[in-house]
Amino acid sequence: MLKNKVPWPDQMGVARLLRESRVLPRRFYVRDTETVARELLGKILVHQGTAGRIVETEAYLGLGDLAAHASHGLTQRTRVIFGPPGHAYVYLIYGMYQCLNLVAEPDGTPGCVLLRAVEPLIGIEIMRRRRRAARRPEDLASGPGKLTQALGITLSDYGADVTRGVLTVRALKCEPPFEVAATARMGFTDQADRPLRYIVRGNRFVSGARVRGA
């Protein structure tokens, strides 16, 4: 716990999470990227004692999507995107922020989903120590760089199989209902006419601009 600060309590415990959820199987990811991006909302991202509910994603569509790293073709950096689905693609931006993507589409077809924000559920004090600049729980993981820092995800997780191991995505057996809102991706003009950013409508943990009425 940070000195002289009131603790931010976890929303659920690890035992409850394990009891009330299951790890998403690989077949979840063997679908078109937009579907995977939308259906990752509400799922639980878990990494080494921390977990958060995914509340914001963006779809990156591969070779024809100029905003996608895969549009440059197969490289050492992008090889995991062209491989089997259900793996982590982690990269560095601005020389300091790490971003987590999950690979979608069948093996050999590039596509991935950027996880932009999660609602902290477990290990919140751990996240708080990692994100000392956060002044409230909503600031812990409301952005792709904040998310990885809060959950301790680094370049060492590149290629991790998220259907097993220490970095996984779980689905609650009784997932609470929510509405999905969609907008253009943030910061890109390519595919600007397509709603490739998905958020849980009304959720206060999303990053950046919200949809009107969301």
Assigned CATH class: Alpha Beta
Query: CATH topology, which one?
Result: 3-methyladenine DNA Glycosylase, Chain A
Query: What is the subunit organization of this protein?
Result: single chain
Shape: globular
Structural class: alpha+beta
For the largest beta-sheet, the strand count, sense and barrel status come to: 9 strands, antiparallel
Corresponding CATH architecture: Roll
Low-confidence parts:
none
CA(first)-CA(last) distance:
33 Å
Q: Overall pLDDT, averaged?
A: 92
Count of helical regions: 4
Q: CATH superfamily, please? A: Methylpurine-DNA glycosylase (MPG)
How many structural domains?
A: 1
Strands, count = 9
Per DSSP, what share of the residues sits in E-state strands of 2 or more residues? 25-35%
CA-atom Rg in angstroms: 16 Å
Estimate percent helicity: 10-25%
General description of the model:
The protein has a single domain, classed as 3-methyladenine DNA Glycosylase, Chain A (Roll), CATH 3.10.300.10. It starts with 13 loop residues before the first helix and ends in a 14-residue tail after the last strand. The mean pLDDT is 92. The protein is 14% helix and 26% strand. A hairpin with a 2-residue loop joins strand 2 and strand 3. By secondary structure, the protein is α+β, with helices and mostly antiparallel strands. The chain contains four helices and nine strands. Strands 1, 2, 3, 4, 5, 6, 7, 8 and 9 form a nine-stranded antiparallel beta sheet that branches.
